[in-house]
Design a protein that fits this description.
Mean pLDDT of chain A: 84
Oligomer: heterodimer
CATH superfamily of the largest domain in chain A: Quinohemoprotein amine dehydrogenase alpha subunit, domain 2
Largest sheet of chain A: 8 strands, antiparallel, barrel
Radius of gyration of chain B: 27 Å
Strand order of the largest sheet of chain A: 1-2-3-4-6-7-8-9
Structural class of chain A: mainly beta
Low-confidence stretches of chain B: 5-18
Order of helices and strands of chain B: HHHH
CATH architecture of the largest domain in chain A: Beta Barrel
Largest sheet of chain B: none
Low-confidence stretches of chain A: 7-25
Helix content of chain B: over 70%
Shape of chain A: elongated
Radius of gyration of chain A: 21 Å
Mean pLDDT of chain B: 81
CATH class of the largest domain in chain A: Mainly Beta
Distance between the termini of chain A: 59 Å
Helix content of chain A: 10-25%
């Protein structure tokens, strides 16, 4: 009997972690995140092809209008490709076109990526068809960051509502930088409340790196009692920055704290801890 | 049993993002490295400019003594004074350039760390002076 209880407990743990219970149907949710992929480009005519042959990062960001897939390199800031698709994920297959600014200098490219559940991990394989190359670029890799796994909100551990505290100024601490973020509810909010926000760079938490004062403007795309998702389109069309926030168990209604993370099409990710600032605090 | 459950949960949750490190991304970023190299080049210049300033100061001190003994003319002394002032100004301008480079590096790091990353490469204005 004791052994049976142990088995039940283990099954519960494994079930709650969801790592071993991914079905193809929830791949849409599970696919959002970052992937490490190996790119192979074999066109010998165009020398630009050969420089693609290295480890790249694929970022999947879900927006209200589209599923955005970007392919770039961790050591470079600007994504090499940013694909958008109105259809999103069709079963396990994503088909997107390069987000173009319709100028003569922007090249045409398409992606066909298949997301697979193998051994508890989401893997991706596919091709990129680029008008500059006579052969398709192939890629394969696996998910290194699943945003769905990070959302650890548990209503039983939190003693305040996110909606009650979300408006205002917060000090947001990341791994390497910190920001002042101001969140305001939109006047035009109808049924579900929606918000816009401005983040200002405050340098590194240890104050060794200067504050640059860089500002990023975000707007909410999804808000519930539990989670707030903020999105900022980046200057390269089809690229996005997403912040996801929820109430932290460490906070109280008098001194609310939030936790969450951000990640972007550039493949940058950081966990966040937010502390609400009083009206007089900088 | 609780310890085992906690251990398993930690292992599973850690495995979902263990391959992504924000700090490593910033340090390996090509733009951050480029701006760090520019800053290092600016720092390297300081040693050379300090040596030039010290040398012109020695020449000026010697020139003052020679001018007192009427070995060199007033025009030649003023020329040495001008050279020294120019060396001091060049060193001050270099220190200004370093502060500007530090500010640019900070902006680049903040853009990369924020996940924004649209960084234009441009000729630094002080390079043309």
């Amino acid at each position: 009997m004791r052994f049976f209880h142990v088995l039940c407990l283990l099954a519960g743990i494994l079930g709650s972690s969801r790592l071993f219970s991914i079905s193809l149907s929830d791949l849409g949710l599970r696919s959002e995140g970052l992937y490490e992929i190996n790119i192979v480009c074999e066109d010998r005519i165009n020398p630009n092809c050969n420089e693609l042959n290295r480890t790249a990062r694929l970022a999947v960001i879900s927006t209200p209008e589209s599923l955005a897939v970007s392919v770039g390199y961790p050591e470079q800031s600007i994504s090499r490709y940013s694909f958008v698709s109105d259809a999103g994920l069709q079963g396990s297959v994503y088909t997107g076109v390069e987000a173009s600014d319709h100028s003569f200098s922007s090249h045409f490219a398409e992606i066909r990526a298949e997301f697979l559940n193998e051994e508890g991990k989401v893997k991706v394989t596919g091709i990129i068809r680029d008008a500059r190359f006579s052969k398709d670029i192939t890629f394969a890799g696996e998910q290194t960051l699943a945003t769905q796994n990070l959302k650890s909100f548990d209503p039983n551990t939190v003693n305040f509502s996110l909606a009650d505290v979300i408006e205002g100024r917060f000090l947001a601490r990341g791994e390497a930088r910190q920001w002042l973020i101001n969140i305001r509810k939109k006047l035009s909010s109808g049924g579900a409340p929606s918000y816009y926000a401005e983040s200002i760079d405050l340098g590194s938490p240890d104050e060794k790196l200067f504050s640059s004062g860089e500002r990023v403007h975000l707007h909410s795309i999804q808000s519930s009692d539990d989670t707030l998702e903020l999105l900022a389109p980046l200057s390269k069309k089809g690229s996005f920055l997403k912040w996801v926030l929820w109430a932290s168990p460490e906070g109280t209604s008098d001194c609310p704290t939030l936790q969450g993370f951000f990640f972007s099409s550039q493949g940058i990710f950081s966990r966040l801890t937010l502390k609400k600032l009083g009206p007089d605090q900088k | 049993m609780k310890h085992l459950a906690a251990f398993l949960l930690v292992i599973f949750s850690c495995s979902s993002f263990s391959d992504v490190s924000e700090i490593a991304d910033i340090e390996n970023n090509a733009y951050v490295k480029l701006y760090e190299q520019w800053l290092a080049m600016d720092h390297n210049q300081v040693e050379r400019l300090v040596a030039i300033r010290d040398n012109t100061k020695l020449e000026l001190d010697r020139g003052i003594k020679l001018a007192e003994k009427k070995v060199i003319t007033q025009d030649e002394l003023e020329d040495l004074q001008l050279k020294y002032r120019l060396a001091v100004l060049t060193l001050e301008r270099q220190e200004l350039k370093i502060r500007e480079s530090e500010a640019r590096l900070s902006i680049v790091k903040s853009k990369v760390a924020s996940g924004v990353g649209d960084i234009p490469i441009c000729v630094r204005p002080m390079d043309n002076m």
